[in-house]
Amino acid sequence: MSLSTDGRVTPVTALAVAVLAGSMSAILVRWSAAPSSVAAFYRVLFTTVLVAPIAVHFHREEFGRLSRRDLAFAALAGIALAVHFASWFESLNYTSVAASVTLVQTQPVFVAIGAGFLLGERITRRTVGGIAVAIGGAAIMSFGDAGQAPLADATALGNALAMVGAITLAGYVLAGRSIRQRVSLFPYVTVVYAACSLTLFALVGAQGHEYVAYPPVEWLLFVTMAVVPGILGHTLINWTLEHVESVVVSVAWLGEPIGSTVLALALLAEVPDAVTLTGGAVVLVGIYVTSRGRDAGT
How far is Cα 59 from Cα 187, in angstroms, rounded to an integer? Predict the structure, then answer.
């Protein structure tokens, strides 16, 4: 694993920053009073606005070399990412931060399943074991956090929405995995974020929400979502994949549920119950085993 690329920033440092920034995402969503789809739309739109100039300036020629197939799969990845954001943001209205963030991080489990069935990759015994453990932990979590969520009687709905977010995030990863082997980071994320923004724009309209009638504090939160979990989290994690083994990134990203839970305790006074914490720990173990099983190939 390389620890330095230019003497100024190391991939390990970047990975730590990305995990910490990603841990803020759920907190920012909770602080926002805007509809979930609106918050998701502006997070992605402002992220697109920030990365597109860099992509055009430094990779202008690469855009012209993108094949129709790559564009189609990048657009598909963007649509999947839009559904991920919409469902996950909405889940935070119904379940606790600890449950929502942990369940949405089960995406490596669904990536492993999808890679096996759609890409013909061999699913190892360790991977199967990890998947089983993660699913068991998710089942345990379904019984937790009664009375802790914003709408406690709908906790099961929130957990289900978080799982939808995990499945669609896995779809985003699978759709874009082969493209990233041929296309640089910024051109790729620009196309993906643009498709994601258009999808969320349509969803906001379909739901009948206002596009611009929000107070200044909401616009500040939208921009912060784009900069912190968007650029410093999501985009930076994509950069680290070029310099750090994927299994290291996958395991390190398990720190996000822990970070989000601690931040929710400190900033939202949200204390997860013992059942949720137990189930969450089991889920994280399952994700870890799944990631290691895919990496080991045994």
Answer: 7
CA–CA dist 277, 283 (Å, integer): 10
Report the amino acid identity of residue 115: A
Helices (H) and strands (E) in the chain, counts: 14, 0
Q: How far apart are CA 111 and CA 117, in angstroms?
A: 10
How do the domains of the chain map onto residue ranges?
11-296
Q: Alpha-carbon distance 189 to 60, whole Å?
A: 14
The pTM of this model reads 0.84
Interval 24-38: pLDDT, tens: 999 999 999 999 999
Q: Where is pLDDT greater, at 147 or 293?
A: 293
**CA 278 from centroid of its chain's CA atoms:** 22
d(CA 192, CA 182): 15
**210: Cβ contacts below 8 Å, ≥ 6 apart:** 38
CB 131 within 8 A of CB 112: yes
Q: Residues 127, 294: contact at Cβ < 8 Å?
A: yes
Helices (H), 66-124: 68-91, 97-104, 107-118
Q: Would you say residue 296 has pLDDT above 80?
A: no
- The 3-state DSSP class for residue 4 equals coil
Higher model confidence: residue 236 or residue 120? 236
pLDDT at position 298 over 70: no
CB 166 within 8 A of CB 46: no
Q: Tell me phi and psi for residue 85, to 5 degrees.
A: -65, -45
Pair 97, 264: CB distance under 8 Å: yes
Distance CA 149, CA 93 (A): 8
The first and second tokens of residue 166, run together, are 């995990």
Q: Where are the alpha helices (DSSP H) in the chain?
A: 11-23, 25-31, 36-65, 68-91, 97-104, 107-118, 125-141, 155-177, 185-206, 216-225, 236-240, 246-252, 255-268, 274-296
Residue 168 three-state SS: helix
Phi, psi angles (nearest 5°) of residue 93 = -80, -10
